[in-house]
Automatic annotation (TrEMBL):
It comes from Amycolatopsis pithecellobii. Keywords: ATP-binding, Helicase, Hydrolase, Nucleotide-binding. The keyword ATP-binding applies. The keyword ATP-binding applies. Pfam families: UvrD_C_2. This is AAA family ATPase.
Amino acid sequence: MSEPRVRRAEIAIEQEHVDRVYRRLAELRAQAEAMRTKGYEIGHGAQREAVFEQASMLFERDMMVFHANQTLQTLDAEYEGLVFGRLDQTIGEKIYVGRLGIRDAEFDNLVTDWRAPAAAAFYQATAEEPMDVVRRRVIRCSGQNVLDVDDDVLIPDAVPDDMQVVGEGALMAALGRSRGEKMRDIVATIQREQDEVIRAPWRGVTEITGGPGTGKTAVALHRAAYLLYRYRRQLGGAGVFVLGPSGVFTSYISRVLPSMGETNVELRALGEVLDGVVATRQDPGPLAAIKGSLRMRKVLTRAMRDTPPDVPAELRIVYRGEVLRLQGKELEKVRRKVHGHGGPPNRSRVRAAETLLEALADKAEENARADGGSVDRTELIMELGERIDFHRFLVVWWPVLYPGEILRWLGDPARLARAGKGVLKRDEVDLLAASFADREADWTVADVALLDELRVLTGPPPKRRRRAQQVELDAAPAARTEQGPHRPEHYDEYSHIVVDESQDLSPMQWRMIGRRGKYASWTVVGDPVQSSWPDPAEAAQARDQAFGLRSQRRRYTLRTNYRNSAEIFDLAAGVVAGYAGADELPKAVRTTGIEPDVRIVERTGVEVGTQAAAKELMDAVEGTVGVICAMDRVTEVQGWLQGRADERLKVVGSLDAKGLEYDAVVLVEPTELITESTTGRRVLYVALTRATQQLTVVASDREWL
Ligand SMILES: Nc1ncnc2c1ncn2[C@@H]1O[C@H](COP(=O)(O)OP(=O)(O)OP(=O)(O)O)[C@@H](O)[C@H]1O
């Protein structure tokens, strides 16, 4: 038979199996529906039964409905091609691999879940170590239709006469396809070095490093799905937390886990980690560097302990006809004494009351001594402690503290200088104070870690006022994945934390995430060469503290760049040549024959040049086109491209481009990317490595080259 006919025949064979799988899926769905309906009927019956029986029936009902709902949720996930692989083994057995395990009515396997041990050979078998696999087949489907098959023969000598072999290079075909707005899963083409990371043990800390496009993000997400499948008992209950650099990024990766049937994962951007705050604004590099440094711990602690603005400067109370007064300095002494005990202020009001009463008793004794008399301290303390005017004073003098409020106080340079004495330089005080002074401005991403630090320092406000705190911080709730995943009641209960783009976390951000992972195991993804954080040693120290004493640490380095064409990556690698060791740069596996297009134009010609390049690339590729520019140019560049509104075209700032990818990229004024950040060349390197197929650079100078 000719190659196309063989291919068609093989597709038809696989279509038959896929049809069988979907028929079975429909049966399982119907069974789960029936179980749910039956469960609800039990509930209705219960109303007529005795209380005791009622309780057990209701329990049974809840269990049935719960299980039925879980099954339906799994079956209804948006699987893009439920079956994607097949292994033919030396013993003549065949195994179909898919996103979900499915058995037929006789309990025979129709599809093996990709995460099950039986499917491991699909990813791990090689010609050198074939693991009894004769032929590995990737099956490409669209919905329920088989579009294509692609084979890999691992033991040529064992191929039986009637076995057909079709095509070559499922990976290359997958990499060459155009990209949509959302990242796709890679279950069908996970490579062996990636599979090893995905299936690494769950305990301790697993670090994944590697250059751009090596699949770190994809691997970390598949690892989350794998861990939840294999260790659901240990990890499923308390929740898995995935942290990404920005909302644009979390939206970009949001479909990957649901496409594998995993909805029990909480996905958040760095600016959304704290409930009640959604921050998207980025501070300029030097300001973010101050806000992120560990020095801020001291500054915040002092700020919190300073006298709040607008508290009364005098306590005046009449006791048995005599006026007792505590004034400025005396009151401050009392405040310092209360803070000296080290408890969170929102939990210290009782201590504040006691210390104030002691000071009043001292004062009364002092007055009495001057008059040659005496006072009964215990009586005074008891009596004043019950007086309403004393309590009125107490609540305003020792107010409930809210993190947002304290940060805003630091908009006053004098107050900030007090808090930052010996810690912050003069120009740093000015920079910081200006950023907190603007009461109208939203919080920035770097502020969120400061708010979280203050949340812990101040302690929780009294319960009846917690709602007020939410409103004070920011009314909008944090974004969740669409399905509303399981969320533990307390922050420190997550069982597994995935940190993506970890090289950019500031020390203060590491502290914030560390609080959420006190008892968790970790998967940490990063590429030091892409780091935009200026002090890696300080960040490493904070990171190690977040991991705590976890003894098991393993590190994997991925070395193949699957995203960029070799032509594009060559240009990017040149930009960081002086910063990265040769072994830190990955190898790009795909060539397209299309060199990146560098256009040097007049400064006044950048706008027209960008418009022209965007148009050309929109015509040249089927998928997405990203226009990347310096952060403070985004609105301007959006304006340039307004008439061209198209779903496929996105304008994105350099820092927000982290982790994203496009079929084609227009990079605007690369030198501006270098100068806007403290680690400029690395930011440019990130921007240059976002395109899969074509890259055009529009620049008014050559300095960046
Ligand atoms: N085994 C694979 N099969 C198919 N596609 C893959 C494979 N591994 C990676 N890719 C693709 O390569 C691209 C880059 O992957 P990913 O974004 O995970 O890389 P990364 O290492 O996180 O990159 P960066 O550090 O630049 O953000 C994605 O489109 C991903 O789907």
